[in-house]
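Q: I have 255 residues here and want to know how they pack in 3D. Can you give me a structure?
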Amino acid sequence: MRRAEVREAAAALFNDQRNPFGAFSLGSETHHAVTIPDAVRRCRWIAVDINASAFGLYFVSPSPERARLVACFDSDYPGTAVATKFISGANGEDVVRHSRISTAPRWWVDGIAGSRQVFQSLAWAEEASPLAPGTNGIAFPVHADRGQCGLVVFLGSEIALSDETLCEIHARSFALFAAVARIRPGDAGRTRSMSKRELECLKLTANGNTSEEIAKLLKLSVHTANQYLTQSTQKLNAVNRNQAVAKALRLGLIE
């Protein structure tokens, strides 16, 4: 399936007002309000459908100088999975560049070799370097309005996909990403003023640094670094640091 066909399928799913996240799933209800917990739940449904053990939704940094993925949420929400730090780091640079010019899914195997046979049978998917060491997975490039793009990633050693289900899962990922990207579209006009230190802490978080590492880099106490991150999260009306970073990137506050 080519890019236009995927987008057409995603649009058809997205236009189904009964579920802004795409295909109907057992237990889904009429739901018009979109929140991050809603998106996490629906991403988990997709993961169950393909027998993935973990997942994550990532935004691509708008900065053309440095390709980077920023996690919006993952399967450990409201926490953060260990794999997310690797995916948000240097390991994601190649797949980010790919996602800006193509919608072809990319897969990797760095764990149980049995997954390779499943992934190699997919006609419209390419092999890539592992996004997280010791994992098998597949990443779906996704796009939304205002030029936003990102990845919906599924991890697991027993992922089950065929060419037919690959297109369906990709379309559902498109619809999911579009819905998440539209959360609070007017935030840019209502964002409270951010201090230099708050933005520095957010930027370092986007680079994958922990509170302890941020404190050391900025010569602050860990408590103070956490305070800046909490304040910036509140000002951006975000539910956690990952979402705060994603919002700051979309609003152009950090690069």
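Q: Anything worth noting?
A: The longest helix spans residues 163-181. The first strand starts at residue 54 and ends at 60.
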